UniProtKB/TrEMBL annotation:
Gene giving rise to this polypeptide: pelF
Source organism phylogeny: Bacteria, Thermotogati, Thermotogota, Thermotogae, Petrotogales
Protein name: GT4 family glycosyltransferase PelF
Highest taxon in the source lineage: Bacteria
Species of the source: Marinitoga aeolica
InterPro entries in the record: DUF3492, Glyco_trans_1, PelF-like
Glycosyl transferase family domain: residues covered: 275-443
Domain DUF3492 residue range list: 1-251
Pfam family, one: Glycos_transf_1
Length: 468
């Protein structure tokens, strides 16, 4: 079996999260051949952070904003353009729109979709939208805004992947639309696994982005929603890491019969052999993750300042690479200097976490967005209690799900709540009984629900279910 697994801006060039999950899945499914498909923004030289295992038999890469020569493909026809024009009525319901587009793409799939931008139909629709909705907007700005919105999707629809038995996309969006179109072209089933919910994440980005004018925000959101809905429709199976994610998937997917939860898994034996540090002098807390804005290291630093005032021998280790967002790393260092925490907070850089988990009393996670963080599962296997923000699956992991009511494995607070994070760390320091009990519950929970062997079995069964 050959699986084309599609990553958007992550594996093999970015560590952590989705990349770590993908690398683990590939390495531990040795009887499956994998073709790695990577989607970048613009062509550039990048250094891989992972070494491919022997069962990776092909690598394919394309770029969203590159200019490709699709001359061997047929340009879109007037017939296609007319049908597309009949569909594109604004405003629209995203699920209805995606259903119509999916049916259209089944009839017209092996075309150069970027040629739409040079067609008469495109000009007619573009001018119609302009006159109806934003005639006051600068036309040049309007023209190039539409180009920047549509080109990456049209490239994604047109590019041809290596042929595989399954396409497994790790997000909707650009990766998802490429998977669906290649699935149609090659009569190949598509599986979708969502760590975070793409259309929700893009909506938040669009609403916050300073470079997007208000006139275009709704159009951006509807575009991403439509693409996600189309990918949900075209996927044979839809998996996510935890049940709360399915609430958001159901906003754009009506077919619950193809929706499954497959939690992350870790090598329990490897991490459970490490000994949990009960000695709390000094009191050492670790934040394991990349020093990037989404991990909200600044909120962790604010919390550390409060803990230090209460516990003089407190130490915070920030364990992870610092080179991904150098400006943000510099701002964090400046913040530490202002708070005079140079002797309290240490950036370790990229290290072997197996050497650091035995040094920790508590794991801290301050992220503003997560899926199902592997670092929490790793800490649990060691028996390290966790203080975390309520993002992704973190609350379910700390409190347990409805099938798992054995107790609390740490403390959960709202994102950006540095006071809550500080109080959580102080509570685990002062309440030995709670800390020891959380440690025991953490090990039990990860052993029962989050072992790597079960995760690999679940994905193997999933692959077999769509190719039989």
């Amino acid at each position: 079996m050959r699986v084309g697994i599609i990553f958007e801006g992550t594996y093999p060039y970015v560590t952590g999260g989705v990349s770590s999950w993908g690398n683990t899945l590939i390495k531990n499914m040795k009887d499956v051949e994998f073709c790695i498909i990577q989607i970048g923004d613009v062509p550039k030289i990048r250094i891989p952070k992972y070494t491919f295992s022997e069962n990776v038999v092909d690598y394919f890469e394309y770029f969203l904003f590159a200019k490709y020569n699709f001359s061997k493909k047929q340009k879109i026809t007037k017939d296609f353009g007319k049908k597309l024009q009949d569909i594109l009525k604004y405003p629209f319901d995203e699920k209805v729109m995606s259903d119509k587009l999916y049916k259209l793409f089944h009839d017209y799939f092996n075309y150069d979709f970027t040629s739409i931008l040079k067609s008469e139909i495109y000009w007619e629709v573009m001018l119609e939208f302009y006159k109806a909705y934003i005639p006051y907007e600068n036309f040049t700005n309007y023209f190039w805004t539409l180009q920047s919105m549509l080109l990456p999707f049209l490239n994604s629809m047109t590019v041809d992947f290596p042929k595989c038995d399954i396409y497994h996309t790790i997000t909707t969006g650009y990766a998802g639309i490429s998977a669906i179109m290649n699935g149609i072209k090659n009569n190949t089933p598509v599986i979708l696994t969502e760590h975070g919910i793409y259309h929700r994440e893009r909506q938040l980005e669009v609403l916050k982005a300073g470079w997007i004018k208000d006139e275009y925000r709704l159009a951006w959101i509807k575009l991403f929603n439509t693409i996600s809905s189309l990918v949900y429709k075209g996927s044979k199976k839809i998996t996510t890491l935890f049940s709360k994610n399915q609430i958001f998937e159901k906003e754009l997917c009506d077919d619950e019969s193809k929706m499954y939860v497959i939690p992350n898994g870790i090598d329990y034996e490897k991490f459970s052999k490490l000994e949990y540090r009960k000695e709390k002098e000094p009191y050492v807390v670790g934040l394991v993750g990349r020093v990037v804005e989404i991990k909200d290291i600044k909120t962790a630093i604010k919390a550390a300042k409060m803990v230090k005032e209460k516990i003089p021998h407190f130490k915070l280790l920030i364990i992870g690479p610092t080179d991904e967002e150098p400006e943000y790393y510099k701002e964090c260092q400046e913040m530490i200097n202002i708070f005079r925490l140079e002797d309290t907070i240490e950036f370790t850089g990229k290290v072997n976490v197996l050497e650091y988990y035995p040094k920790l009393n508590v794991l801290l996670l301050s992220s503003v967005s997560e899926g199902q963080p592997l670092v929490i599962l790793e800490a649990f296997a060691v028996g390290i209690p966790v203080v975390t923000t309520d993002v992704g699956a973190c609350s379910e992991m700390i409190h347990g799900s409805k099938e798992d009511i054995i107790g609390e494995a740490g403390i959960v607070v709202k994102p950006k709540d540095f006071v809550g994070l500080a109080n959580g760390m102080i509570k685990l320091y002062e309440d030995d009984e709670f800390r020891y009990n959380a440690s025991k519950i953490a090990k039990i929970r990860v052993e029962k629900r989050y072992k790597l062997e079960q995760m690999i079995k679940n994905y193997r069964d999933l692959y077999l279910s769509v190719v039989k």
